[in-house]
Amino acid sequence: MKRRILIVGGGFAGLWTALGAARVVDMQGGAAADVEITLVSPRPELHVRPRLHEAHPEQMAVPFLPVLDAVGVKFIEGSVERIHVADHCVEITRADGQTSTEGYERLVLASGSRLFRPPLPGLAEHAFAVDQLHEAVALREHLERLPSQPEGPQRNTFVVVGGGFTGLEVATELPQRLCAILGETVRPRIVIVERADAIGPDLGPGPRPQILQALEQLGIETRVGAGVVSVDAGGVVTATGERIDAGTVIWTGGMIASGLTAQVSPHLDRQGRMEVSADLRVTGTSGVFGAGDVVRALTDDDGHYSLMSCQHALYMGRFAGHNVAADLLGLPTIAYRQDFYATCLDLGAWGAVYTEGWDRRVKLTHAEGKARKLLINTQWIYPPAADREQALAAGNPEVTYT
Question: Which residues are listed as membrane-spanning (predicted)?
Fold first, then answer.
């Protein structure tokens, strides 16, 4: 009888969890011959979410079945609707609409995060987003239809709600995208609305001078200290009462963990992330581990915790995969640690700003920063080749990338 490890989620954390678990099973040889690793995801592809703000989001889906096949990981195309921790099983709605119940010996929840959408008037009906692939495609299609609309200030005004990492990348990418769509003679008005008192509040003061320089160079306006309180077909209203007429509103207002976390643990932070032990075992559960955006994990001995980013999800997945397989096989688990931390913020035609450390010391800017961003986005965060040796090596938690 097979002993099953079930991984819920096919994002960065889930995929690298599968590789990490497969590596341990491979190293144990015959002692792990009865272990079956299964990954459950709505689609057999990794969506590269950090790139969905770019001009061709439909190109940001990377098939991963060849990689899973190379390391002997099974795949179920479907969505997990319910997790029954006490009974060690999950309920799945498959791609064909059929439902099934799948049991497990060990579970890794890596179901990711989703865009936070508060109940603001008009938000659901009138705002675009780049959180999911289909949303980014809908925005692209909308932008490409703009030339068919009557020219005027409203058509040519774009409001990006949220001045954090995603909002900044969306806003600074827009000038180039709109130039290609509307022509060089049109001067679009782009406005970032941020409720905090400064742009890029979570990025801190380190890279802020470069961010502000880029916004000024690109002609992007900002409104800080007051968020959007309503959205309609013609624009937005801010908390100060200012009305900004705009034909395009893009919402980037923060992230929250997958709702499945509440079915697994009562110990959740304000973003819905689960509390985990050093080896990524979900606190208060039996046989359940977590990785990526669904957990709040200590990254180092200085008290820094993981963020909702592919940087932490990918690396954490290796540890979760190693530990869930080791735990099933009676081997020692290892503590997740990720001492190196960096950020690389794309700022459109200005370039990019690359920082290192939790105090975000600026290391590269402009073209040099852009080159680093390109390396990260096109190589470092992509799945390995569908080669067994390379794929198993990619699951090694002891390998660091700096």
Answer: none
